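Structure in, sequence out. Go:
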């Protein structure tokens, strides 16, 4: 049984490592070398950085990274503020219609996103947000309710006696939220920031649909500059993918402990 487990682990490692390996070795190949060699063979030299220079020039990667940074920063700020406020109101107070609101949030997570895209696209156009950075920002802030459930799990573990003692001292609800609840939600906020950053950074669908203008390209859509209808420049595509992968790999390696601790600690009551 132990031998079978090791075999399965080796296969799992191979499945995970194999695609990045193919991308890495082909990112350093010249165009003629890529056509004459196999996709799994090593390049003639790992010092060929010409592909990366061409990718930065033709795909305007500097502008793509800037647009991506703006979208991620504003979207995360909106998600954190709105998510904590909604979770605080729902998790701390009892009011008429609370169950209906929770049911609406649950229904939003069940409905497939693709089925609502025609209506969402019409709304974005009517608001004159098409081909602007505001379109993905609004969609990333309002279309995901997962952060509300993450924050609510943490709020349930915060003793309500803290709120009562603050009220006795004359603190308002806004001050209780900002000075007490919000700082205690920092583990959930760290988890949300990491997950949302990776999700927005890798998303191709929303930027491609709502920002087709080339000047508004992001890192995920920049790869499409090297793919046509009948052919694709795979050595440049691999170089672009490698450039895009580096920030996410570094982010995940540095902050992976916060991802796991944030998800698990919110699901277990103390």
């Amino acid at each position: 049984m132990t031998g079978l487990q090791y075999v399965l682990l080796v296969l799992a490692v191979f499945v995970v490592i194999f695609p990045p390996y193919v991308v890495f070795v082909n990112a350093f190949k010249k165009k003629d070398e890529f056509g004459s060699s196999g996709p799994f063979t090593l390049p003639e030299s790992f010092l060929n950085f010409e592909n990366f220079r061409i990718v930065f020039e033709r795909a305007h990667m500097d502008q793509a990274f800037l647009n991506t940074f703006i979208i991620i920063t504003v979207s995360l700020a909106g998600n954190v503020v709105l998510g904590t406020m909604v979770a605080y109101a729902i998790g701390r107070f009892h009011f008429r219609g609370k169950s209906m609101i929770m049911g609406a949030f649950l229904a939003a997570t069940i409905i497939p996103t693709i089925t609502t895209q025609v209506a969402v696209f019409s709304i974005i156009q009517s608001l004159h947000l098409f081909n602007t950075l505001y379109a993905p920002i609004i969609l990333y802030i309002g279309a995901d309710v997962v952060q509300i459930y993450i924050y609510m799990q943490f709020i349930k573990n915060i003793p309500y006696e803290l709120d009562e003692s603050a009220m006795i001292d004359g603190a308002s609800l806004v001050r209780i939220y900002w000075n007490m609840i919000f700082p205690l939600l920092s583990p959930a906020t760290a988890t949300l920031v990491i997950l949302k950053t990776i999700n927005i950074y890798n998303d191709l669908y929303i930027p491609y649909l709502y920002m087709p203008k080339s000047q508004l390209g992001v890192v995920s859509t920049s790869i499409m500059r090297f793919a046509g209808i009948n052919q694709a420049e795979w050595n440049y595509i691999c170089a672009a993918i490698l450039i895009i992968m580096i920030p996410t790999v570094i982010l995940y390696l540095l902050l992976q402990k916060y991802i796991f601790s944030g998800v698990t600690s919110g699901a277990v009551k103390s």
